[in-house]
Amino acid sequence: MGNRNNIFIIYFVRSKKNVIFAYSILVNRDSDTVNYFYKQYKYKNKMAKKVAGAFKLQLKAGEATMAPPVGPAFGQRGLNGMEFVKQFNSKTAKQQGTILPVVVTFYSDKTFTFIVKSPPAAVLIKKALDLKSGSAAPNKMKVGSITRAQCEEIFKIKKDDLNCETAEAAISMIAGTARSMGVTLAD
Questions:
Q1: 15/98 Cα distance (integer angstroms)
Q2: Is 156 within a domain?
Q3: pLDDT tops 60 at residue 16
Q4: Domain of 84: which CATH number?
Q5: Which residues are bridge partners to 186 per DSSP?
Q6: Which of 98, 116, 134 is the last residue of a domain?
Q7: Residue 174: inside a domain, yes or no?
Q8: What is the number of domains present in the chain?
Q9: Please, what is the Cα angle at 125 between 131 and 58, to 5 degrees?
Q10: Element housing 18 (H / E)
Q11: CB 58 within 8 A of CB 73
Q12: Domain end call among 90, 116, 142
């Protein structure tokens, strides 16, 4: 095969039944001999699905039902909402009752995938301070105080979902959310 008088040719032919035929031809110019090699390969056609769209929901972990907002969101797109409810509840069973944002991506063949994000910062702040709700007038009426250490704990939970370059910027963002809820930042 290392001889310069040899010519090696390979070509592939695809059949309709997911089979590729590989034909190899080795031609020796000196002796006028031709050797044929043949191999058959099976393959799966794994083309990417076409994304038809995406939507966001906020649901209680482990407690999703087909009631709004899940039913209407899935029904109007012709998707299997019950399948989503089962998958979501099993995936989030450990965080029972916490509000979680979900990004659902659906495809043209009516299948879907979803990503569960970390809880909103406001929910984590209320949980850290045992608040029922934030202030209706945050600039006038304060409802609590949060420490920098608590902001750092919230940052550790949300770090994958925040669009900040540094930890300082993320903690500042969480402190700003707390201020908008009527919670002061204690040093």
A1: 53
A2: yes
A3: no
A4: 3.30.1550.10
A5: 147
A6: 116
A7: yes
A8: 3
A9: 95
A10: none
A11: no
A12: 116
d(CA 98, CA 135): 20
The answer to the question of residue 109 being in a domain is yes
CA proximity to 176, closest of 122, 137, 113: 122
What is the domain range of residue 70?
51-116
Q: Are residues 112 and 126 in the same domain?
A: no
* pTM for the model: 0.68
130 and 75 co-located in one domain: no
Which residues are 19's β-sheet partners? 42
Q: Tokens 């540094």 identify what position?
A: 166
45/57 Cα distance (integer angstroms): 33
- The answer to whether residues 121 and 154 touch, using CB atoms and an 8 Å cutoff, is yes
In one letter, which amino acid is 32?
D
Same domain, 38 and 64: no
How far CA 167 is from CA of 69, 126, 136, 160, 185, in Å, comes to: 34, 21, 29, 11, 17
pLDDT tens, position by position, 69-82:
999 999 999 999 99
- pLDDT tens, residue by residue, 81-135: 999 999 999 999 999 989 999 999 999 999 999 999 999 999 999 999 999 988 8
CB atoms inside a 10 Å sphere around CB 79:
19
Contact 54, 70 (CB under 8 A): no
